[in-house]
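Posted in: Structural Biology > Protein-Ligand Complexes

Title: Requesting predicted complex, SN-glycerol-3-phosphate in pocket

I'd be grateful if someone could produce the 3D structure tokens for the following input. Sequence and ligand are given below.
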Amino acid sequence: MIYILDTADLEAIKHCNEYYPLAGVTTNPTIISKEKADFWDLLKEIRNIIGYDKMLHVQTVQKKAEKIVEEAKLLKKELGGNFYIKIPISEEGLKATMEIKRQKLDIGVTITAIFTPAQALIAAKAGADFVAPYVNRLDNILGDGINVVEEIVCQLSKYNMDCQVVAASFKNVEQVHKCAAAGCHSATVTADVLENIVNHPMTSISIEGFEKDWASVYGDKTILDL
Ligand code: G3P
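-- Reply #1 --
Done. Output follows.
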């Protein structure tokens, strides 16, 4: 299971990149628009923070395959490193994926806005490196996001596809946990969800107990002072 951060908020990226075992950052046009920043400055700063080894996923805003490929090449040239073009599932998106792979451009492809296992399988067949099912958006329409993720994981494994699932659109820790239990390869989450994975009231109570008991004997000294 790998964790990816789903935001373009530079402060959140700085923080989470320092404190969490992040594999990279994912964005989409909605996430980028929220920052109201210069597009290239923002993306280059994200690359600067996470470095060239971690994944950076950026979504195309083109609709036609040829233009998607052109945009992917420009993004890779400007942002470099471990780069993935995110392409919403569509006929044009599949065509663009096959073309990017045919040209061996060293550009990863994440087919996004996946809502069914059938979409995921055909995206994998076209050459997608990742498929991104939207868990919470499925849950919102009684679509059982976790079950969809589980079916996708099973199908990719059954057909021995060289494609991983990056589950997306999470609103809570339970959804992330259930995806992990279903064998999902990765999850892209907001900083809030990431922090909630770590925090637990019983953990806080336990830590308070350790601190109180230590202080009763050693006062405010730490091991470094003894
Ligand atoms: O990156 C796409 C996905 O994470 C969307 O999430 O919260 O807009 O459903 P959300």
